[in-house]
Write a structure and sequence with these properties.
Elements lengths: L1 H28 L11 E7 L6 H9 L8 E7 L6 H11 L4 E5 L8 H12 L4 E4 L10 H6 L6 E6 L3 E2 L4 H23 L11 E4 H6 L13 H12 L3 E5 L8 E2 L4 H13 L6 H23 L5 H4 L1 H20 L5 H24 L1 E3 L8 E3 L1
Parallel strand pairs: 1-2, 1-4, 2-3, 5-8, 6-9
Antiparallel strand pairs: 4-7, 5-7, 10-11
Length: 376
């Protein structure tokens, strides 16, 4: 039993160790590009029913410290049923040379957001495409921070985008910690120039590379995971370097799901994309989550009096908190102890609840008014 526990802990420890080593090497090898040679960047955003947020969001983009002659904003309204389109058009009339508003009439495939982004990228003039979401608040330093990584050999830059709540501090702490855990995997794999996952709330890639891999048309027809699949295809092409932007100036806070139910629905969409991952990625995700559940199960079983089993639980928790704490230092962020405790308890429960429907059920798109309901 002791040998089995030691093997289990060793396998579990291997994953964060490999990812952290990659992150540390990558972070301290990063050389910032001379932003005097600024590339032209097209910020492309798909918006659906964001009338209460669109003015704040577009104002944040228009106030970027990046040279105003070197970037454009393309917002594509994706079938909004509220005032998102009209409010965006009103703002665009005040900034005719900087902001373009398009209306997506197509809905090809399961993800209408994908077709909206494709329309925006098709209209873009930039050498680089930068993506974010309309429910985020990009800091004024965002584009400038990304541009410092736009070396001639770099083809993709991913960044950190913590989800937050504006109504509950404990729920916000949980969402931020969950965002850290997801970003940990993204940063670690990207640091090894291996594409697995990223967030479209903070992402940039060369338009030429996007076109050469076939764009969204070459990705699986799924409700979620478009950004993951673009990352994976660009990485697989082997034509350039992948970079993770650690600097706080590049972080984009976002509004997270307001309730546990909406959070579970979001997780179901995200996890459903895993069915289209490579066998190698699926295997490693499966091994990690299996080790996670076995360590928890053995630790809880040990509460009956088996100290050798029970000790696996605090060992697992210690590995988790050290790994995420080190990652926070690399990001220049902070880890909430309350958020970590809530996440440590909630993480396995969330996956146990979300995974079955993600892989074997029917997953809906996030909008309440969407009539998209597809087998996945």
């Amino acid at each position: 039993m002791l040998i089995a526990g030691t093997i289990l802990v060793s396998i579990y420890l291997l994953y964060p160790t490999v990812l952290l080593v990659g992150m540390v090497i990558a972070k301290y090898r990063i050389t910032h590009y001379n932003v005097d040679n600024r590339p032209f960047v097209s910020v492309v955003v798909a918006a659906h029913n964001h009338q209460s947020e669109i003015e704040r969001f577009l104002t944040a983009l228009l106030q970027q410290k990046y040279d105003v002659s070197r970037f454009e904003i393309i917002l594509v309204d994706d079938g909004s049923t509220d005032l998102t389109l009209s409010r965006a058009q009103e703002i665009a009339r005040c900034h005719p040379n900087r902001l373009t508003v398009l209306e997506n009439q197509a809905n090809r495939g399961k993800s209408r957001k994908k077709s909206a982004l494709a329309l925006g990228i098709q209209s873009a003039r930039g050498e680089w495409i930068a993506l974010t979401d309309a429910d985020t608040t990009p800091p004024a330093s965002w584009l400038q921070a990304l541009a410092e990584h736009m070396h001639p050999q770099t083809v993709l830059i991913a960044g950190y985008s913590p989800q937050q709540s504006h109504t509950s501090t404990w729920w916000s702490d949980f969402l931020v910690t969950d965002s850290l855990a997801s970003a940990f995997v993204a940063a670690g794999t990207i640091s090894w120039n291996f594409g697995v996952t990223c967030t479209g709330r903070n992402l940039a890639y060369r338009r030429q590379e996007f076109c050469q891999i076939g764009g969204f048309a070459a990705t699986p027809d799924t409700l979620s995971g478009d950004d993951d699949f673009i990352l994976q295809k660009i990485a697989k092409s082997g034509k350039g370097k992948l970079v993770y932007a650690f600097t706080p100036a590049s972080h984009i806070p976002a509004t997270g799901p307001a309730t546990i139910g909406k959070f579970l629905a979001q997780k179901q969409r995200h996890l459903s994309a895993g069915k289209k991952y490579s066998r190698f990625s699926q295997f490693n995700y499966a091994v990690f989550h299996l080790c996670n559940l076995l360590l928890i199960g053995a630790g809880l079983y040990g509460l009956g009096g088996n100290i050798h089993l029970f000790i696996l639980l605090p060992i697992k928790a210690l590995i988790d908190v050290i790994a995420i704490s080190v990652f926070c230092r690399l990001l220049g962020s902070r880890l909430s102890l309350r958020g970590w405790l809530l996440w440590e308890i909630g993480f396995p429960l969330v996956h146990l609840l979300a995974a079955p429907k993600s892989f074997f059920g029917r997953v809906r798109w996030k909008s309440d008014d969407s009539n998209v309901s597809t087998p996945t």
